[in-house]
Design a protein that fits this description.
heterodimer; A: alpha+beta; six-stranded mixed beta barrel; six-stranded mixed barrel; 20 strands; 55% helix; 16% strand; elongated; B: alpha/beta; 7 helices; globular; binds adenosine-5'-triphosphate; binds magnesium ion
């Protein structure tokens, strides 16, 4: 208890230092907490959106309705609180009174539909009453009719009661063969189209009380088992091909699997960045604790003489640090939540999603206390074992060897933490190691450069030039800790610069859609002989056509190709079904880059998507065996590709050379990014190619855009935190040397230096410090960012030169400001008081 | 009667790059309960060094120190600290108050270190004893030198120590203030039936002790 009280008394005695320590911790923690909260929010949002896209958490679909036994089995595994709705879809012809005909996709929905989201019509029509339907606007144009007109569907005349504005579950099938027509179940039955032998896709949509993606995925497995199906034996979702046998079970997350995966990876990187911010904060903590120990050394010596043993004294510091860390952690968690909240608000995410919760609050506090103790270890060890008499005499030795040892002990901890945070044994530790190397380089550089600058002050005539020289000279005075301050600031600048490069590169990647180049219209099932006509029909729509040939994977020549353990999702399904879409391209598409090897050009060659190749266990030079509708095909891997799946363009795991698939049954898929009116293009194409299915993905594209903005904000936030952390460290270091500065200033004042020049000397000292540190840091940041983005993210690099150049003056100005503010007490103190009290 | 404090054959050397200084060289000393001893000697003769050894803050290169019948060499750091907290009171030339703490809090520190429940009351009692009952809430920086030394005195006496050790307790004070502090020091030591050992350059102050010893050539001699 006495220790707690003493800790409080001693801490209270130096409020500024305690405040800076708390802020340092708060900033360090805020980054991590905000990234955590943000990640969860984005996850929630994506989960919510994908629910909307699927129309439920889970969709069971098949060519026939569930039998009673099946239905019972499925309902048996659904948790309580679940809701479900049956939906039937078929393709049929709609005919107007005037005899115009068009293929439509007729969907029958029960009254409880939709389970998620809302069906929005342009009128207040009720589909469940009478033989009425709602149609997509395209149909009205294609058939040249209006709301109120009558359509013949099967043997029933159905009145068009409204136009569909928004429909949940609109994108579940990529094989929509015509505009949607929504009717009630009774209406469908009355058309006679649902009779025996009709090609109807039956779907059971399910929503759960708990739509946590993991819980939904687990349920999907359970449903498979309840139906007596192998959960893995499914075609990859998103693969363009005919529906398969059995009952397909699809989760909402799978509906947007790629987006989730991209977000997860970016989340890893944000967590890593925030870890770097934490390290910067940690450096601040180390400095501040060191300063605290130096400042209170005399007090602790007196306490020792009064009878406090060494363990108690060590405990005292630990309690002080822990207490401050606790407050810092709370503050940081709150701050992190606030930052996440602001980002959420700024990016137009739905409000009302909680951003501060007890878990992240607890995590923040834990992180703060852990970081504080870990980073305080070095300075604590450094001063451990000092003898009180020696301290009072002023010649207590500082064991920098032990301090260094303590600091080195932190490194494995950091590497481990980085590995956990990035879920990778290589990326995280590599970045941390890079940061440590950068820190070492900077420290070495500043050790040489700063004293050199200190000697630059040549003429010292009059108070102003003297002050200038004095300020520069301070950079070389060891007691003022310019080298560690510059190193920390430099590291901050490195982190800032790397984040700038990272942000520019990532948003350069993701921003394609904001320039309107992201395809929004897809045309599927284009036949070989239509390709040329299609190209001619879409000259301004930046169309991109890709051939598709269905093939069956037979293995790697000379090797069994077992399903790799731990493979999940698309690929695992691929390994079971072995059904794959092959395609070819003469050169890399807009969404891919060749990572290794060369493009497949000669006959019998192919390139693989790199992640897919890893899973397959195939490398360059391996021969893959396929079966294309009975014709064997052998392809040699010549290269590995990185694919940006978020690009929404048609992309394939396997791309062959242009000749190998000649003659095989081929269909084409086209992606269009129309510059003009999307609907007009759609209309024109359906007129010219009646067999074509056209999908409008503009809504999804908008969501991608929103996501990009959110992440850009998060990166900006982390960068800001890094800057603040660096400045706080600087402030801490200045505070540490405050007493010495005060004494110097008092003596200078007594010797006749006016206050103005004194202020100038401070300003000069810190702006030069900021300039040098910023310059060195930003120069290092360019190769650093290049390495991170190229090697680890495997993205094309774009370096935002203006942004980096602009950072330098800002950094310099902020450093000067922070330094002068922290050292401001030097200016305010009255010399006589200073000299008397010390 | 057993002495409160005894030193036998104390040796203390300091090794510097140029040469080895032998500051204490076979020094003997015994202080009886209730006895007050003054130590005088030239500057640099080793008086402060001696006090540090007696308090167990430093280890001798030879000889031994016995406090309350315990050989200090046999005690670990923690036990030494405990012994200091319970049995010793300290007074420094430059007061050495904890600057972040108020006067009352400073006096409470040794009381709390031994876990006394009545720490606050006793601290107030002792502050009143040294005539600073109304200054308990003040920080050291708000007190004069004499006042600070009186707070330090209250702190040294707070735990009813068996032995009070003082290194030039009036060295920083003017004659009149020094007189007041000395009066308080002696009356308190006597009132507690404690023993005392102090270093001083002031012949008048030295004369108030029961016994005066000269530190010369590393040993104590009677004048
Ligand atoms: N840690 C040390 N290292 C080296 N020399 C030391 C050390 N401590 C004390 N000395 C030397 O020992 C001698 C005695 O020092 P001490 O402080 O005990 O003198 P003193 O008698 O108290 O002097 P004063 O009356 O001036 O306070 C001095 O010469 C001093 O330089
Ligand atoms: Mg002395």
């Amino acid at each position: 208890m006495i220790l707690v009280r003493l800790a409080w008394w001693l801490t209270r005695g130096a409020p500024a230092a305690a405040g800076v320590l708390i802020l340092c911790l708060a900033v360090a923690v805020a980054g991590r907490v905000s990234v955590g909260s943000l990640g969860r929010v984005v996850e929630l949002v994506i989960a919510g959106e994908s629910r909307g896209i699927l129309g439920g958490d889970l969709e069971l679909s098949g060519a026939s309705a569930l039998t009673e036994v099946q239905q019972k089995a499925v309902l048996g595994v659904l948790p309580s609180g679940s809701h479900w709705a049956n939906q039937r879809t078929c393709t049929t012809m709609a005919t107007t009174v005037s005899g115009q005909t068009r293929a439509v996709e007729l969907r029958a929905v029960p009254p409880e539909w939709p389970l998620v989201g809302r069906l929005v019509l342009d009128s207040a029509a009720d589909l469940q009453v009478g033989p009425v339907c709602a149609v997509q606007p395209d149909l009205l144009r294609q058939l040249n009719c209006r709301v109120g007109d009558v359509l013949r569907l099967g043997r029933l005349d159905v009145r068009i009661a409204g136009v569909i504005v928004e429909e949940p579950g609109a994108f579940t099938t990529p094989f929509q063969l015509g505009p949607r027509v929504l009717v009630s179940a009774a209406t469908l039955d009355a058309t006679g189209l649902a009779g025996f032998g009709a090609r109807i896709r039956h779907a059971l949509l399910v929503t759960l009380a708990d739509s946590e993606p993991a819980a939904v995925a687990a349920l999907a497995k359970a449903v498979h088992r309840a139906l007596g199906q192998d959960p893995e034996a499914q075609a990859p979702p998103g693969s363009f091909g005919p529906p398969q046998q059995g009952i397909a079970v699809k989760t909402a997350a799978e509906a947007q699997g790629q987006m989730v995966r991209v977000v997860e990876r970016l989340g890893d990187w944000l967590r890593l960045a925030s870890l770097l911010a934490l390290i910067l904060g940690g450096l601040g903590i180390a400095t501040l604790v060191r300063g605290m120990l130096v400042r209170t050394a005399g007090d602790r010596a007196v306490l020792a003489i009064l009878g406090a043993g060494p363990r108690r004294l060590a405990m005292l510091t630990v309690i002080q640090v822990t207490g401050l860390a606790f407050v810092g952690g709370l503050l940081g968690s709150a701050l992190g939540g606030l930052i996440a909240g602001v980002i959420v608000r700024q990016s137009g995410l739905p409000p009302g999603i909680p951003v501060v919760d007890p878990v992240s609050l607890g995590l923040g506090v834990l992180l703060a206390v852990g970081a504080a103790l870990v980073f305080a270890a070095g300075p604590l060890l450094e001063t451990a074992g000092q003898r009180p008499l020696a301290i009072l005499r002023g010649d207590a030795p500082v064991s920098s060897r032990r301090g260094l040892l303590g600091s080195v002990a932190v490194i494995p901890l950091l590497l481990g933490l980085a590995a956990v945070e990035t879920r990778s044994l290589i990326t995280g530790p590599a970045v941390i190691a890079g940061a440590l190397v950068a820190g070492g380089l900077l420290a070495l550089l500043f050790r040489v450069v700063l004293p050199g600058i200190g000697r630059l002050a040549l003429f010292r005539r009059g108070p102003w030039t003297f002050a200038l020289g004095h300020g520069l000279g301070n950079l070389g005075r060891p007691g003022l800790r310019a080298v560690p301050a510059a190193t920390t600031l430099g590291l901050g600048a490195v982190l800032l610069g790397v984040l700038l490069v990272y942000r520019a590169s990532v948003s350069g990647e993701l921003a394609a859609e904001s320039r309107g180049t992201l395809p929004t219209l897809f045309a599927i099932d284009l036949q070989d002989d239509q390709v040329e006509d299609f190209r001619r029909a879409t000259p301004d729509d930046r169309g991109e056509l890709a051939p598709i040939v269905r093939a069956r994977f037979r293995g790697i020549v000379g090797r069994e190709a077992p399903v790799p353990a731990g493979s999940a999702g698309d690929e695992a399904k691929f390994f079971r079904a072995r059904e794959q879409n092959l395609s070819w391209r003469t050169s890399p598409g807009a969404d891919e880059t060749l990572l290794a090897g060369r493009w497949a050009t000669g006959e019998g060659e192919c390139t693989l998507e790199s992640g897919f190749a890893t899973r397959l266990g195939a490398g360059i030079g391996d021969k893959l065996r396929f079966d294309v509708q009975g014709v064997p095909l052998e392809l040699t891997v010549t290269g590995l590709r990185q694919v940006r799946w978020l690009g929404f363009r048609p992309n394939f795991f396997i791309l062959t050379d242009p000749q190998s698939l000649a003659g095989a049954p081929t269909t084409w898929i086209a992606a269009l990014a129309p510059t003009g009116d999307r609907l007009a293009v759609q209309l024109r194409l359906t007129k010219a190619f009646p067999n074509l299915t056209i999908l409008d993905l503009a809504t999804i594209a908008r969501r991608v855009q929103g996501l990009t903005d959110r992440l850009a904000w998060a990166v900006a936030g982390i960068a800001g935190l890094a800057l603040v952390a660096g400045l706080l460290v600087l402030g801490g270091m200045v505070l540490e040397s405050a007493r010495r500065r005060r004494e110097d200033a008092a003596i200078l004042a007594c010797l006749g230096l006016p206050r103005g020049p004194l202020a100038l000397s401070l300003a000069v000292e810190f702006s030069v410090l900021g300039l040098v540190a910023g310059m060195a840091g930003l120069v290092l940041a360019v190769p650093g960012g290049l390495l991170v983005v190229r090697l680890l993210l495997k993205l094309p690099v774009s370096i935002p030169w203006e942004g980096i150049l602009l950072t330098l003056p800002i950094l310099t100005g902020l450093t000067a400001l922070a330094g002068v503010l922290a050292a401001g007490q030097v200016l305010r103190a009255r010399p006589l008081e200073v000299l008397r009290s010390d | 009667m057993n002495p409160v404090l005894s030193a036998q054959g104390l040796v203390r050397r300091f090794v510097t790059p140029e040469r080895t200084l032998t500051i204490l060289d076979g020094l003997d000393l015994a202080v009886q309960p209730g006895e007050v001893v003054a130590i005088v000697g030239r500057s640099g003769s080793g008086k402060s060094t001696l006090l540090g050894l007696l308090a167990g803050l430093d280890h001798p290169d030879g000889g031994k120190v016995t406090l309350d019948g315990q050989d200090l060499a046999t005690l670990g750091e923690a036990a030494l600290a405990e012994l200091r907290a319970r049995r010793l009171g300290f007074l420094f030339q430059n007061y050495r108050l904890l600057s972040a703490l108020t006067a009352e809090e400073n006096v409470r520190v040794p009381l709390e270190l031994v876990g006394r429940r009545d720490a606050r009351d006793r601290a107030r009692h002792w502050l009143a004893q040294v005539g600073l009952g109304d200054r308990g809430g003040h920080r050291p920086a708000q007190l004069s030198g004499g006042e600070q030394q009186r707070v330090a005195l209250a702190r040294a006496l707070a735990n009813d120590p068996a032995l009070v050790i003082a290194d030039e307790p009036t060295g920083n004070l003017d004659a009149a203030t020094g007189q007041t502090v000395a009066d308080l020091l002696f009356s308190s030591i006597r009132a507690n039936q404690a023993a005392g050992i102090y270093v001083t350059h002031d012949p008048l102050l030295a004369r108030r002790a029961d016994r005066v010893l000269h530190l010369e050539a590393g040993r104590l001699v009677a004048p």
